[in-house]
Amino acid sequence: MVDLHSQYLKIKPEVDNAIQSVMDSTAFINGPEVKAFAIEMANYLGVKHVVPCGNGTDALQVAMMAHNLKPGDEVITSDFTFIATVEVIGLLGLKPVLVDVDPQTFNLDPEAVRKAITPKTKAIVPVHLFGQPAHMDSIMQIAQDHNLFVIEDTAQALGADYTFSSGEVMKAGTIGHSGCTSFFPSKNLGAFGDAGAVFTNDDDLAASLQSVVNHGMTVRYYHDRLGVNSRLDSIQAAILRIKLRHLDEYNQARKEAAAFYYKAFSNEPLLTTPYCSKESSHIYHQYTLLLDKKINRDKLRNYLSENKIPSMIYYPVPLHLQKAYASLGYRKGDFPVTEDLCNRVLSLPMHSEMDKLQLEYITDHILQYLKR
Known about the structure:
By secondary structure, this protein is α/β, with parallel strands linked by helices. It is built from 13 helices and 14 strands.
């Protein structure tokens, strides 16, 4: 699904030198590379503050802690996302409130959000799924109307743009009160291990975030609040600094691979290709097809596997039907769009190193299968 080795080889001298520099300095925790990365990431995003942390899941937890969400508070988020989005809500004693998604973008349905708000609602977590920002115009308006925090889950859309109805353009993750991301190796901007960050334009929130990631300290050994140990190590920061310089290049390569897929499948009625909304750019963290109900997805995947073509299902089970969240009381049929997507989506290989021969091989085999 990704080719991290080829990507590494293209920047090997830069990365190796960066790693060696950290080794020589022995400033492994909160070293100069971490501070430099935070500044460079903030400049890229056009945001005032970037607070690095240990991973993307921690980023979500740290943001919720810094926003002072309390046990029992309700947090609205998507039913169609990776488990980490709701996992941290439960870990903090908050209540996940799941809502259905838009059938075209697969992102949070603003009207479903509005209907789910109660007096206990304190925050909305829109997930910018597969590389395309959610409809932030509507979500920010809903949050303003109800005095709610917006915490963006930007793990799959770092570098994507969102254009407001006013014409203003902002990067995904910089629109809400805070934005969270993961630098897991397979992400568009991936480290060589776990890593994450939180973004904000709020000075006070940034100070709280800095405190939370470092055991609740503001001054060494003086702990003003509950915190965690979630720091980005200097080697990962050094690698991310190098790769950040190539992020737009990586995203453009993904767009070009996606354009090949779109053209190849344009006349195939059994496949629905990813929808691109007018207000959002799409950076294709995943290229996810929606299969016609006539297609047996498992048989197609087996055929692809036999021909050495990987594929993935993101995600096979809706969050509301996961055993870990049975206590929330949701039932099958509560979120029909998500349930339908989980039965019909299929993601194809998508990364910055794909070439024409690979793309032709993948698309030709899929089209041949559909003609059977």
